[in-house]
Design goal:
single chain, mainly beta, Ribosomal Protein L14, five-stranded mixed beta barrel, globular, RNA-binding, Ribosomal_uL14_bac-type, Ribosomal_uL14_CS, rRNA-binding, ribonucleoprotein
């Protein structure tokens, strides 16, 4: 569950390391984002000489959250960190995805992210 001003990790190789959430897309009064939701982020920490620079404003999809997420079968899934993958339209901007990715991401229409991931949980 991410909200405005949340600082989250980036789970791809675009060059951004930490980003800050400043808008949750999907309605004018929408406050929180869960797995598979798209958010607007600003890059806070970035590696030098990469595709993404500090202060860039981008769209990203939430791929991990610390708050337990209830699945349709009644089980819960929870991660150690909050993480996003930076998007270029509907596709990921980077070529690699780090860390585990839940299968809900594929169900939400981000099949490319699931196929690039090391592990789908």
């Amino acid at each position: 569950m991410l909200q405005l001003r949340s600082i989250v990790n980036v789970a791809d190789n675009t060059g951004a390391k930490k980003v800050g959430v400043f808008k949750v897309l999907g309605g004018s009064k929408r406050r929180y984002a869960e797995l598979g939701d798209i958010v607007v982020v600003s890059v806070k920490v970035a590696e030098p000489r990469k595709a993404v620079k500090k202060k860039d404003v981008l769209r990203a999809v939430v791929v991990r959250q610390r708050k337990a997420f209830r699945r349709k079968d009644g089980t819960y899934i929870r991660f150690d960190d909050n993480a996003v993958v930076i998007l270029d339209g509907k596709e990921p901007k980077g070529g690699r995805i780090f860390g585990p990715i839940p299968r809900e991401i594929k169900e939400r229409g981000f099949a490319t992210i699931a196929s690039l991931a090391e592990e789908v949980v």
